[in-house]
Amino acid sequence: MDMFNAGGPEVSIRSLKKDSMKFVLSNCDLSVANALRRVMIAEVPTMAIDMVEIESNTTVLTDEFIAHRLGMIPLTSFDVDRIQYTRDCTCTLYCPNCSVELTLHVKVNVDIDEMNDATIDKTRHVTSIDLISSDESVKPVTDDKAHPILIVKMRPGQELKLKCIAKKGVAKEHAKWSPVYGVAFEYDPYNKLRHSHYWIEESVESEWFVSPNAQEETPPDPNEPFDYNAKPEKYYMELETSGCMKPEDVVLRAMTIMQDKLGGLQIKLDDEVTGEAQRWGY
Amino acid sequence: MASSSSKHMGDLKQDVNDKMKGAQAHAEALFGGKNLADPIPTDKWKLLPAFLKVKGLVKQHIDSFNYFINVDLEKIIRANERVKSDVDPHFYLKYTGIRVGAPERPDQDAISRTYTPHECRLRDLTYAAPIFVDIEYVRGRQIVRRRGVPIGRMPIMLRSSHCVLTAKNELELARMNECPLDPGGYFVVKGVEKVILVQEQMSKNRILVDIDRKGFVQAGVTSSTMERKSKTYVGTKNGMIYLRHNSIAEDVPIVVALKAMGMQSDKEITMLVCGQESKYVDKFAPNLEECSKRGIFTQQQALDFIGSKIKAPKRSFNTTVRRPLSEEALEILATVVLAHVEVHDNNFRPKCIYIAVMARRVVMAMLRGDLIDDRDYVGNKRLELAGQLLSLLFEDLFKKFNTDLKMNIDKVLKKPNRTQEFDVYNQLLFHGDHITSGFVRAISSGNWSLKRFKMERAGVTQVLSRLSFIAALGMMTRISSQFEKTRKVSGPRALQPSQWGMLCPSDTPEGEACGLVKNLALMTHITVDDEEEPLVKLAYILGVEDVSLLTGPEIYLPDTFMVFLNGSILGITRHCKKFVAAFRRMRRAGRISEFVSIFVNDHHQAIHISCDGGRICRPLIIIENGRPRVRTEHITALSQGKMTFDDFLKRGLIEYLDVNEESDSNIALYEREIIPESTHLEIEPFTVLGAVAGLIPYPHHNQSPRNTYQCAMGKQAIGAIAYNQLNRIDTLLYLMVYPQQPMVKTKTIEMTGYDKLPAGQNATVAVMSNSGYDIEDALVLNKASVDRGYGRCQVLRKYATLLRQYPNGSYDRLADPPIQPDDPLVVQEKFDVLDADGIASVGERLKPGQVYINKQVPTNTSQDIGVNSRDPTANAYKNAPMSYKSAMPGFVDKVLMTTTENDQTLIKALIRQTRRPELGDKFSSRHGQKGVCGIIIQQEDMPFSDLGVYPDVIMNPHGFPSRMTVGKMIELLAGKAGVLRGQLQYGTAFGGSKVEDMSRILIEAGFSYSGKDYVTSGVTGEPLSAYIYFGPIYYQKLKHMVMDKMHSRSRGPRAVLTRQPTEGRSRDGGLRLGEMERDCLIGYGASMLLLERLMISSDIFEIYVCEMCGLLGYAGWCQHCKSSKGMSKMQIPYACKLLFQELQSMNVVPRLQLQNVF
Prior knowledge:
Chain A is of the alpha+beta class and 282 residues long. Chain A has five helices and ten strands. Chain A has helices at residues 30-42, 63-71, 112-115, 204-207, 247-280, and strands at 10-16, 20-26, 46-57, 99-107, 124-127, 132-133, 150-154, 159-169, 180-187, 234-241. Chain A has a four-stranded antiparallel sheet, with helices on one face. Chain A has a four-stranded antiparallel sheet with strand order 3-8-4-6, covered by helices on one side. Chain B has 1158 residues and is of the alpha+beta class. Chain B has six domains: 58-188 and 386-476, no CATH class; 208-314 and 322-339, RNA polymerase Rpb2, domain 2 (Dna-directed Rna Polymerase Ii 140kd Polypeptide, Chain: B, domain 3); 529-688, Hypothetical Protein Ta0175, Chain: A, domain 2 (Alpha-Beta Complex); 693-719 and 760-789 and 918-1037, DNA-directed RNA polymerase, subunit 2, domain 6 (Dna-directed Rna Polymerase Ii 140kd Polypeptide, Chain: B, Domain 6), CATH 2.40.270.10; 794-864 and 872-915, CATH 2.40.50.150; 1065-1145, RNA polymerase alpha subunit dimerisation domain (DCoH-like, Alpha-Beta Complex). In chain B, the strands form 14 sheets. In chain B, strands 19, 25, 26, 27, 28 and 29 form a six-stranded mixed sheet that branches. Chain B has a six-stranded mixed β-barrel with strand order 32-46-33-44-43-50. A five-stranded antiparallel sheet of chain B has the order 8-9-10-11-12. In chain B, helix 9 crosses helix 10 (325-336). The longest helix of chain B has 30 residues, at 2-31. The interface between A and B is large, with 40 and 42 residues.
């Protein structure tokens, strides 16, 4: 099948869960598929805590330590389009248009009665649940209520009071803005195209596993002659999100971003072409 | 069909079972109850944690110190118990007892006297306890007894018997701010943790035959008694044997020496040296001849001869009567020569025999070259520990204390009429802190100078390195040798076969101290001195005959063995095997100390018993009748806690062997290797390595220098230091933000606690070439990993200052931020972080140059100030602020305000930086493979596996072929298997998880057995044509970070004298264009560049030269010619001008002759 004649790229979803997704991309060039992967990792904007104003921290962890931990907490970002990048905003540092404020205040009081009772666990786990967001659409991902994300453990007498400023950003700048934890990407599981050269001692079949993606394809016929003109067709992708947005949204947004980029490029190129044309007078 | 076959099978089984039973009965009869099906105790390694539980990792230091405090102090007091007066013969002071109290806070007005080591660390105090003595003395006409008189303070070793930390549980330790994993064994002196390193020395009081500088055979003995130390040699010169000693100016022919000691018969001498062997007699005969040639036949003649050769004795002036030289000689022979062989009632016989034995050894070595002893043999070495060194120091200080006390007493007693009755107690109480300061000075400076033994040692103590937990631990097991480092002899540096199991073969530094600084292996113990008398008695009971009653031929009968105890001759026995076996039985039965060693030297026909301190020994399982005495049931009882290590010792299942006895035993490495001759079985082979080398997974697969490199690098790894790391205020503290325990650990790691205080992270490594920024061992890091906290560390630095009080009553003070006159409400940025008390508040962000302690110092610190002085200059202060100097902003982590021992206010500020890895930071795996970060790559550009796994680190495969660190590859494989199984794998030396099992796990999880993965390029999306070795490897971040090293300068400070740019990064110095660079530029001909580099950009200076006299003038005027005629202005380096002037100051006149060049 020649992909240039077949009506453009196609996607078929193999599985879709709350925070992961498997799909097959076909009828497109390798570079496009790879670009999609790269954009999903690095350029889909999400929300993440970027600034922390610590008012009181008497925990065992240092301010930077806690700030770093807070930054790594995924925030729900399905409504991220509503929020501006700070660099595009008119404000000086941050404002409601370009940021969301989250506060955290935990103080473990000293209970005289419990003090000397070793049987009571006096350790207080400060978790993502304790982060109070000012914006309902941007809050820590707490899908698993029983196991929220631990920030710090506290003991009686300690206090942690801080204000977080979550901003919109992309993972190119810092990995905390990445919506995905990893993107698996594969094509040609039978290595029909011979893009890979298996390292073997005796035989490929006995030493290398065929990837599970192979069930989507027909096994090669050993007698089939090698088609050196063949191009990769189907790309098996799997992504796992941090929970900040739905996996399908990640894909869709990534595609939009690619589109926007190409669109921007097109406009720029048009301008350039007309500009050049005027300059040279034709 | 099926049922019938199964029945048939059943029959067959029954048959086999019957046969087995028969065979078993047969075997029982044969093997004395040994069941062939007895399970082999495979987990006998469990003895090791049991050993460490009893002994601890640094038990050598603690044992030695405990022995000193509890036993040795008493002995020292006994030896120096009386202080008398030259003035009043009736007066005496006698020490009747000594004891060390509990550590006590020195502050006079302290409410609670007990204190913790951590308080000492923070407050710069010395962790010490008072020394109390019981005394008995004469006051007037009565004898007074007093108990518990303090004479000084003794620094206390942490976790020793007198330390507050001993026998405390984890909770109690936590309350005292102490880490339960900290090994102790060091001192806290003036707030600094100091370790007294183990010192390696040649053993004392043992005959050692070697070759002297001229190539002649000599037997030497270092005699060491409480009073003196001296070296005696019996050496050869041109085939003749001589006695050599420092106190005798010339070599004394051996026969003359023996005759001087009363052995006048030539026959007796010959017999005592040679026995009846003619070859020895032939070799020895010339000596007799020489003696007779000199005309020495009697004892008196011999003594006269020696007397005339004695070096001018240092005698005191009060002995007016000069004794005849022969008496002098006799005394020297009795007390100085071979001082450890005591002469009682002028009975020289034992000493004669000793010298004869030495002579015999020399004769034997002259005939057989292989009888020369090996100086580097570990059995000939003794290790000197903190206890011994402190005991030497204490004796010295105590003696000094007593002589000072005596002088004071004499001074008082000399006064003809005293107002008060003389009570020495007051003298004793207000006698100063000579002992206290002596200890503190010695430990904090490391200089052990004892006049008595002419001992002058520097660098005995070292500051405990707290760079990482393992660095501190490694320091506690370190042994430093007394050899000079400059000497180019390989012998002492070489790996000795006798080091096996005692000293770590891997852990030694590279470079000048290579092989001289060693480390103890994991399961070693160093003995302390033990009582000799019971052993002497036991030996005689077991049939040793006193050698003084025998003659030469009897001593040297073929089946007669001479018995030595700690190098001194006890006697002889004719039943060597029986004697040794009986002796060992007594030891195994616990009748004598388990650390007494006995071994047979067949070459010398000698049995050596040792109970002296400083021998390295280690436990081994005893084999009896071809089977180890430790059985499975013992190990089971051990794991259930029903037995301890000591029970194993008591029941004679294991025993300690020192190096000498070890060499006399047949030790099987594994149970399967036991042969009928085997006497012992190793507990675990991996105990040959030390605590630091024990961190390396699969070290037995690595090229050996790689393990040595890792031993050096493991100590520089950043990680967790101790549980109390956040309460410490150290000068420099490196902490890792997210340390992880290694995926592939070792048994040693678990036992040392490295898994609880790790220094590194499990990085997912792809072994591949990428980007070219990974050549020469550079690493490629994943930016996302770095963002997420990989390799992140905190650097905390202490800045301290004292608020001094001066003799004139003025004192330093803290000031609040200065007010600007123009705008009083705005604080200057420099003082922005200061709190109202003049110190930056905790949590504040410090920018470079900001002040964090705003100290002010009085301008007048010496002159007296009137109390109500109105003179404003008298009370003026000048600013002496402490400002933050670093390229990167820091945060105030902690501020401590306290007082020191002498009531001065001490302020410590701890400033913290959090650093993420950057280009040029150094990393290393545990296999001596270090590398710097060459580039940090975006996650999307990184290659990734088919599962979407992106590596944290990419390592260049060229690191492998030449380094041959196969262990690292296996670590990756085992780590990958561990990750897939969700369990930790073991890479214990000479064992650990097997590669085959690891590959199987990989296959089960759907991976290639080889550890290689299908990897796609992140840039193109195409698969890489090669398969990539991909998996977790434990990576350490080392303390060398670019931030601390990078340096550049355009303009900056210059040295005052030469006006040239300063040197070094700390002084913002210039980068030197050195001689070789200069040569290059000369060769190239770039003269203008040279001029610019060497003068214009450095120390250019404008001078005026007088063309008449050629001297330097000033501002167009020549002072010499008193004229301004012919003055030329020119530029020369300031250093050149300085040279001219310095020459002039030495009456050398440099004159410049100027010419027009163009």
